[in-house]
Fold:
Amino acid sequence: MSISHHLDHATLVAFSSGTLPEGLSLIVKSHLEMCAACRKAAVAADEIGGSMLAEAEMAPVALGSKASVMDKIQTATLHRLPVSRSLGESEVPRALQAALGTSDLDSLKWQKAGPGVSMFKLNKGKEQDGFLGLLRIAPGQKVPDHGHGGTELTLILRGAYHDEIGHFARGDVADLDESISHTPVASGAVECICLVANDAPTRFNSWAARLVQRFIGI
Amino acid sequence: MRGVVADHPAGTVIRQWVACVKVVQAMKKPFTIAHHAAHFQMPGSDMSQDKLAMLIRQVAQNLDRDAFSTLFDLLAPKVKALLMRRGLDSAAAEDVMQDVMISVWTKAGLYDATRGSLQGWVFTIARNALIDRVRRRKPDISIDMIEWDPADDAEDSEERMLREERASQLKGAMKAVPADQLAVLQLAYQEELTQTEIAARLGLPLGTVKSRMRLAYAHLRGAMENAS
Structure:
């Protein structure tokens, strides 16, 4: 797969350190399954963590701790093969499959979110935690101009869209921060399905879109 | 530490010594005493890349319990310390550390030395175990650092040299990262603060925190790749 839009390295550092919010982390994991360049970049970030581990002090382990572990490994099941051998073969990355409970996007219960746009919400948390879910945009359909309260990640799973920043196709990730406002339009003859997560509510720039937002909760 | 002391023939003397040092410890950074106590049975437990790679290979290929036992001595106290720094109390850190060490055993066959260092791999296992615990959900098996490609059993001396060199380059480069950038990395990796929390802690705009992360990352990655 040829990917032209990658993860911001600051996002990879946050992911690697385990401090990226859960929804954004799901997008990072999904993109990593699809993008060799970002996997390599992620390994470098993990090395920073490894170096911090190597430099850590030594906290004394509890009495009997080692004996207990030595005992448990006698019966522990070994992982012999990499769990993710066939990457990029399914339309839905494995990390997302686990969250959705299916690998078939068409079987989801899509909810109408405006003209030519439907969505499937994944998080049932509070609105201020941000949005995590799938957006399905009909060919040629425009998503209202919006900005972001914090970080927003978008991963394209099917079709493509273009906006002020560029053209985004399957596997591409848009890693946007609060300074950026955009108006994505689904391009080509097929619909565009993307996974979207943010860590603060989306800010639509028109009052009509804001009105709709109150009902659909993106 | 109690275990180390109790197992030793000169336990009483050492217990007294430890009691003395504990008082000192209260006034100092925690690593002073922990360092001594943990090194007690194992002088010079410096984590050489070569040694770690050899040990994990013995575990993966021969299910070598002695090699694993040595790895436990080298890694378990550090994993526990990292987990405690990231907010777990001693009992919880002990618990998660044991899970991490069991994963090191069960996943040893997946570790691929050509992709990254052992401590980087163990770090990702610890990070994921901690996330699973905090989010109280089933273990997420999807992402450990090396799991994308099948492990390559063969290892030539060039790869080994490269690994040693990369690790030492990274260690050196870490010292050369400007203090304001290093602080941002430490707050993320050691204190587990999100970008937003780091911004609040340092009184900086989020954009500045992100750009310091990018700069520090670029610096360190550059140093690692110069070794290749």
